[in-house]
Amino acid sequence: NAGVTQTPKFQVLKTGQSMTLQCAQDMNHEYMSWYRQDPGMGLRLIHYSVGAGITDQGEVPNGYNVSRSTTEDFPLRLLSAAPSQTSVYFCASSFRQKGAPEAFFGQGTRLTVV
Amino acid sequence: KQEVTQIPAALSVPEGENLVLNCSFTDSAIYNLQWFRQDPGKGLTSLLLIQSSQREQTSGRLNASLDKSSGRSTLYIAASQPGDSATYLCAVTSGGGADGLTFGKGTHLIIQP
After folding, report:
1. How far apart are CA B67 and CA B73, in angstroms?
2. Which residues in chain A are closer than 8 Å to B51, comparing Cβ atoms?
3. Measured in Å, how far apart are chain A's first and last C-alpha atoms?
4. Is B105's CB within 8 Å of A105's CB?
5. For chain A, what is the radius of gyration of the CA atoms?
6. What pLDDT, on the 0 to 100 scale, is given for residue A98?
């Protein structure tokens, strides 16, 4: 199994450009989520989804959009990139199971906005 | 709002020592607690997950405990090795596990050969 796959691994954007960070999982997990990791701030939740067609905002959603049209994919869109969005982005997924769903993470996308 | 704190922020010990990493959380109504390892420039690797009804979990040289009522968890690493050098992250979930993880800022661990 590939697990959680994020593309691209690295990206440089100019201020005002748009892009989509891709996240795909092949474990048939219902729950998916996006985080950003910044020095001194730790990982913070951006958006999450409990299933296809259902998304919700996390702690730091401003400047980001998401959609979940399939169980496998959960793309994160930056509509107009800003230098404050320079960060490392992680996607995670987990089962909606009775008990304690263990979260699995992708390898991250390192984004620089200049 | 849930807040997770990890102490110490950094730790350097000689190889072979046993060590304890601490994690505390402000809201005891958690669904589970998960410990992760992160190597520089890499993603997060899950080490141990403790359900809210459990007291501890073990995997090899790692043992994680949970005291939900006091809002604390510890990660015990036995007989540390240079390969254990990494950042260790603690995270909690609430709401049945559906609404994402709240992370601490991590403990940066260095094991000296």
Report:
1. 6
2. 99-100
3. 36
4. no
5. 13
6. 58
